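User: Could you walk me through two proteins back to back? I'd like the raw sequence and the structure tokens for each, with a short line separating them so I can tell where one ends and the next begins.

Assistant: Of course. Protein one, sequence then structure:
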Amino acid sequence: MFDYMLGEGSTKYSKLPPAEQSDQRRKLCLRELSNVKYGDSGIFSPDNYIRLSHEEMSVDPIKWAKRLYEFVGLEFSQETELYIEGITHGKSLVQNGKDPDGRFAGFSVFRDTLTVLYKWMSANPKHIHEIEKECTELLDYLGYVNIYDDNLNKIAENPWPKIVDKP
């Protein structure tokens, strides 16, 4: 996942000691925070910049696809809407491990966006806690709340960012 950050010929991320893996994750989050703040700084006209969260797109892909098409000046046809509906609610389209185009479902464009949205919640809570510590500034800036409760040693009940109501 983070191998691209290390550069060509570098040790693979998965082979790095835990402290170096943590450092790489922290650097990634700080770089993302810098990018998001730059975009939000007002340097770009609202006609040239839009920030969209993964959660927003996953919860209402048609609404946001229409907005993005309008933003870049493209027509949003009925055919486009049907395609987006199909690829974002694609769980039922996957059969025998293959998508409708015959690709292995793991590499398919067909996804149930709500399933993907919730998938991270099955991660080891200790790993989630590590990422929260390494990415605190970014998560705070984006409106997320820490979901790992140190006192209870588990994930909190409402892990959703403030900008999206849980569907």
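----
Protein two, same layout:
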Amino acid sequence: RDSFLVTYLDKKHKDVTGFVQELEPVHKASRVSLREAIGKITAIKGTITLVQTELASPNIEASYKSLMEPFVKSCTSSIESIEKSAQSLSTTLKEIAESYGEASNTDSDAFCNMLSVFVIAFEKCREENIRKQALAEKAEKAQKFQEDLKKVKEGGGKGHLDLAIENIRAGKLAPSVNLQGGEDPQQKRLLLDRLKSKSKILSEQNKRIERK
């Protein structure tokens, strides 16, 4: 999956990516076929027309007529309202499709599905970018720690061993320290063992990152 577009927009035009939230209703719209809905409305209208024809017959039973006439009248009103909404929606979708550069005769169902697929792909690319960035930061931190540990072993500043351990416990990079003189040898060895232990953990994490 090519994430160039996502990366570019997130870095250079963050305000543009708000379309993801704006197009959220498209996911629900893509699950319903406007074409099929209009077809069902037409079928229901045909059934109501047949019932109206029956009710107009002089041979219809009075009890049936008194029961069905109010029902048909109510259904007719509801169907007309639904049909009007469907037609308005169809017109609106055509106008939206044209605003996106599509032809005016573009199928509304296909258009909604296309937008939904694009938004989903865009969000997945963004999540993948965030994951990769987090892995890169972890790998960089592990590498920096290895470099600092090497400086600790080789020697470099004097009297900073305690600070190195405190920084490690705080999740910071350890500065270079000098293990020669000025400190209790037993304490130095204990602290160095802790540094090695921490280094081993970060090294294992780094290997897992590389495998991914």
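The helical segments are 4-12, 19-22, 25-29, 34-55, 62-99, 108-154, 161-169, 185-211.

Let me know if you want the two compared in more detail.
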